[in-house]
Structures are given as structure tokens and as C-alpha cells.
């Protein structure tokens, strides 16, 4: 028997991802949340505590999606789940537009209204959030998050675990390092180092 998908997380991001998976025609069996999670997540029962991952695996669940907004936590729990033998699913809205030449990793989320253009590469566990645009030849690193309405022009590279807040703009060819943060509404016109936080128009560094 084909089991439903296990979703890790029970917060706001998980709500959206559960509904993305359902829109793809999948059944979500359970969410697995922290001990303080609500009992239900958009109608899906929530099991509290990561120990449930192992017990669900033992009774035959094998497909899983990690729906946690924190990039580092998403990466860590995905590694735990794959070590337990889970296969990471993608949650991709039927209302996203994705080029046939784009390359998508595993465990990624692409929300409604997102556009991913020709030969873009989206690495494992990345989030391309609502209405974000990733133009031709962009490279989005592992477990990076491109927040709603952010627009990347062509040939932009985003390093692993980086976060671009809501409504950012990045001009063509820019390279943003790993674990970098761009504040909401930032306009990036020069390269950004690993670990830096930048804000504003044009974006300036507030933390190195
Ligand atoms: C579906 C979803 O919800 S997806 C989630 C989307 N989430 C977001 O877009 C959140 C984006 N987060 C931000 O923009 C945050 O403000 C961050 C991450 C850039 C900075 O957060 P913090 O490290 O807590 O910085 P803090 O709030 O202390 O601000 C530091 C300074 O930067 C300024 N600043 C912070 N964010 C911004 C911004 N987006 N644009 C311009 N200036 C900013 C502050 O005014 C402050 O300036 P000051 O020192 O002159 O007073």
C-alpha cells in the first residue's frame, strides 16, 4: 500500500506546504511538529516530537517533506530523515511556472505564482516562495530561501542556506555567498560575502 507523505513542521510554512502537496494530488498523512505544536495543521493531525519520524518509518512511511522555514533547521532535519531512509519529496504548486530546462533538486518548495526560467538550477531543500521569480541561468544553493515577491535577474547565484526577504531585487550576474541575508525590500547591485546581512536600496552591509 502506498502511504501518504509525512510533513515535518506544523507552523505557517507547513500549512502552505501541506496544501501544495494536496494540490499535487498527494495525501498528507501526518505532520510531525515540536512538543508545543498545535494538534492539527490545516486539517492534518500533528504528532509531537521528532521521535515520531523513526516510528512512522518503521510502520512503512517512506516519503517525507520538511516544511520548516529556518534554513539551517530544514537542512538538519532533512539529513536526519534521509539517514532514516526517507525519500525527500518536492512540493510544487500547479500554479508555478517552471521552465522545462530548469533543474530541480529534492525536497524543494515552489509556491503559487513563482516563475523559474530557462536553465535555472534549484538545489535541494530550497524554497522559491509565493510569486518569486528566478530568471535564466540562476543558481539557488542548498536550503536557500527566496521569499515572496523577490525577483532575481538572470545569472544570479545564491549560496547555500542564504535568505532573501520578501520583495528583494537582484540585478544580473550578482553572486550572493552562503548563509547570507538580504533584508525585506533590499536591492542588491553588488556581490555579497558569505554570512553577511545587507539591507536597503541599494543594499548595504549591516552585519559581516
Ligand atoms: C511567507 C513568509 O512570511 S516568508 C518570510 C519573509 N520574511 C522576511 O522577509 C523577513 C525579512 N527580515 C528582515 O528584513 C530583517 O529586518 C533582517 C533579517 C534584515 C534584519 O533583522 P535583525 O538582524 O533583527 O535587524 P534589526 O531589526 O536589529 O535592524 C538592524 C538595522 O537594520 C535596519 N533594517 C532591518 N531590516 C531592514 C530592511 N528590510 N530594510 C531596511 N533597513 C532594515 C533596521 O532599521 C536597523 O537600523 P538601525 O540600526 O539604523 O536602527
Automatic annotation (TrEMBL):
Q: Which UniProt keywords apply?
A: Transferase
Whether Phosphoprotein counts among this entry's keywords is: no
Q: Which residues form the active site?
A: 136
InterPro entries hit by this protein = AcTrfase_PglD-like (IPR020019), PglD_N (IPR041561), Trans_hexapeptide_repeat (IPR050179), Trimer_LpxA-like_sf (IPR011004)
Q: Which family does it belong to?
A: Belongs to the transferase hexapeptide repeat family.
Q: What is this protein called?
A: UDP-perosamine 4-acetyltransferase
Q: Where does acetyl-CoA bind?
A: 145
Q: Which GO terms describe its molecular function?
A: transferase activity
Supply the Gene3D superfamilies for this chain: 3.40.50.20, Hexapeptide repeat proteins (2.160.10.10)
Which residue ranges does the record assign to the PglD N-terminal domain? 5-77
